[in-house]
Design goal:
By secondary structure, the chain is α/β, with parallel strands linked by helices. It has a single domain, classed as Rossmann fold (3-Layer(aba) Sandwich). The radius of gyration is 16 Å and the shape is globular. The chain contains 10 helices and 5 strands; from the N terminus they run βαβαααβαααβααβα.
Length: 206
Amino acid sequence: MTRNLFIALEGIDGSGKSTQIGLLKSNLENAGHKVYTTFEPTDGPIGKLIRDIFNHRIEADQRTIAGLFVADRLEHVLNKKNGMLKKLEEGFTVITDRYYFSSYAYHGVHMPVDWVIRSNALAAGILRPDLNIFIDIDPETGMDRIRKGRNSLELFETLENQKKVRDKYFEVLEMLKNEENVFITNGNRFPEEIADEIWQKVKTMA
């Protein structure tokens, strides 16, 4: 019997999380897992509001954005129909594209990171990943990928901000290394190489 897992993928924009989630899902399914993939912000009402802010359709203060993420994340965890807790209880291995480390890094650039961590403590207390995978890439590479894939940039997608976010990621990963299971992989490589390294780590837990 395979043990179902909760895995969060993290990284700056353009780090290749979506690609790696697809490859990891295939590897897990081949190993006998039922896999449910999801993402933040969600496609629920609060997540859609966040996306409107990101796409410059609505203006909001950084503190408001951070608060909306807290609410969206709790709904992501607790929704009785398709929340992550529900899916885990149904026996799925759940892979999420972003979780609370994203808030620590992105919002921690604009406000005290201790506040961001405290504001996400309820979600972290309810559901902590078995594994946080951080895909590390050069911010310049990330921005190149974003520009090639889209016609417009979102709120946080500037080179200066991506550099700050990457630094903040490493700050909080170090800060919480004794509380969280974190695996860091070099994302400046071919996707298949990264996927193989991730799978070598994950398959020891499944």
